User: What shape does this take?
Amino acid sequence: MNILQAFSYAPILRGFLALVIAGCVFPMTGVFILRLNLVTLRFTLMHAALLGAAIGLALHVDPLLAGLVLDLAAIAAIARVARESGLTLGYVATFFMVLTIGLAFAVIYKAGVPSKDAFGILWGSVYSLSRIDLAATALYALAIIVFVTALFPRVSAVLFNREIAFASGVNERALTTAILLFVGISVALLMKLIGALLLDSILLLPAIVASFTARSARGFFVQACVVGAFCSIAGFFSSLALDVPASSAVTVIAACLLGAGLIYRRIARRRS
Amino acid sequence: MTPAGACISADAISVAIDGHSILHDLTFRVNRGERVIVAGPNGAGKTTLIKAILGLHPLSAGTLSVLGALVGTREWSRRRREVGYVNQEAVSVDFPYSGREVVEIGTCTLSLPRSEKERRVREAMDAIGCTHLQRRMYARLSGGEKQKLSIARCLCQDPSILLLDEPTSSLDPASRREVLDILIHVNESRALTVVLVSHDSEVLAEKAWRIERMEAGSFA
Assistant: This one.
């Protein structure tokens, strides 16, 4: 089967489009994760999604939807607790990470939920997307683009320093909450798209690679998206050519770029 | 209300953080166009005072008004960008902001056309003498260069008050002198009220500033 033939199958075409859209846009939320040190939050969201899936299965509700709801609830709770306690988001996220996984196992055990089904939320597949999934991914990507471009100066201020953003008149509390929401929804959608264990290849690795080469905040966002687009497109075609899962191919390419980025950084530092 | 001529007026304010009293019954006034150094040892409450003025720490007692608006009210929220703030830590290490992007933060909430914002950024950088830093990466600049950009960022806001938290603490003597001269220049040329907190003994030797000494949460 050649590539053009492959695109005649609707699930493959939908998967390709979703992967390209996610690769081009979702790395922007990876920049948020890096800058606000939300790496722990991402694990918390995976655990919260697992808890949501377990609750959803116990109540006979769509586990993905329940996972998304739990992710949003976790974000709201983390933002609130961090604000009230004065602790960093990372600390609070760690607490919720442990709490949600503990609760997830308790629900799985007490409600007799098949753990294989609950853990199913952690394994995504680009080829299992419906038209609605694709449309939701595209709309959400558009929302990220509008948020970052229309509010870039304010977002940039919050990422620079929240106290300075506040003193400059920015509603930093609302913007930080919005940023957390974007991170949460990106994680939830990428779990569906390529799975929880591989979502960093689109979310985080492009942003890390861009951090080696970018010389401005605007450049950071743009370069992260370029790297993400390259990883998703190259990964998709590699997966067809080599007959390996698309998510694995995307991840391997992203990891190779990260390695190349590290070498570039070392050479650049020696020169300077 | 702020007494006539005063742009910062704190009346018997107290601030507690995590149950610890940091400022107690502190009264403090700064008049328009003044330049004031708030001096004192580490832990005296200088940074807390600055953050209370910015509205970052709520008061547990007393009243605090800035530019005629009580801190924390809606009126003050509207006017808080008239207070420029240069903070203590060198921020944003290892994140690729350009010098110009840092200065642009000062214009982020201004309802002005883009060309006007760009003009403000250009003029502020010219005024502080940091135009040559606009394409440089902020994270790789020296402490003095970062402080210049921070002051330029504040000037873009067109503030009435400039609050600086230990702006010279990590600077060599030449950079320290340069930053202090810039502050005196903006104070005189723009009639800007400047309040600087410091424990730096060299700064405290300045004759051209009103110096207030803090100790254990109130003025000595």
Remarks:
- The CA atoms of residues 191 and 219 of chain B lie 26 Å apart.
- The domain at 6-214 of chain B is CATH 3.40.50.300 (Rossmann fold).
- Chain B has one domain: 6-214.
